[in-house]
Amino acid sequence: MDAASMGSTVTMLSRDEKDACCGCSRRCVCIIGVILVLLMIVAAAIVCAVVLALPARTPETRYCVTSDNYTGFLCDDRKTCLLPSQVCNSASDCGNGEDEASSLCSDLPNNLPGYLIFRCGNPQFWIYSNLKCNGINNCGDCSDESESLASCSSCPSNWWPCTPVLYQYCSCIPKSLCRNGVQDCVSWSDEYQCT
């Protein structure tokens, strides 16, 4: 049999015979394609079911807002929100003790998330973010009570605005110090004007 006669033999085959030579018909290819798509859908559903059934991981972010409206630290239970000053304070305030983990507390403040700390005017010093804008000079330079650095508003309602005598306060004193017979404001307004 020569090459010319062999070519004519192949062209003389019917369409079904050609498909049989290749191993599958168009219908067969469609069925296999549908089966593969269905298998991929089932596999994706199984993967989703397994992932969703796994125990909850530690939250990627521990950012939360406390009941006092402070930025806080979210415990593993995803319900407890601690004040920043409760993190790395040598007391386990979260159920699993994650607030005292060495990964957080070994290199303070560098290992703490930025929203838990406030860098003072002198960046070598820092305080927990819930201690800024509280009327107390926690940084020592009043930067934690400043409008420009700490975004603090004016004196809280139960404070008296003045230049304090004691460096413990910055631009206000607690009204409990008013009319106590002691000069707490440079201008003496705490003794003569404060009510």
TrEMBL record:
- Entry keyword annotation includes RNA-binding: no
- A GO biological process this protein is involved in? vesicle-mediated transport
Report the principal subcellular site: membrane
Gene Ontology cellular component terms for the protein in this record: plasma membrane
Q: Which Gene3D superfamilies match?
A: 2.40.128.620, Low-density Lipoprotein Receptor (4.10.400.10)
Q: Where in the cell is it found?
A: Membrane
Annotated coiled-coil positions are: none
Q: Per the record's keyword annotation, is Transmembrane included, yes or no?
A: yes
Query: What is the topology of this protein in the membrane according to its UniProt annotation?
Result: Single-pass membrane protein
TM spans (from-to):
28-54
**Annotated ranges, domain LDLRAD1-like C-terminal:** 154-192
Please name the InterPro entries in this protein's record. LDL_receptor-like_sf, LDLR, LDLRAD1_C, LDrepeatLR_classA_rpt
Q: Which UniProt keywords apply?
A: Disulfide bond, Membrane, Repeat, Transmembrane, Transmembrane helix
Q: What is this protein called?
A: LDLRAD1-like C-terminal domain-containing protein
This chain's source organism reads Engystomops pustulosus (Tungara frog)
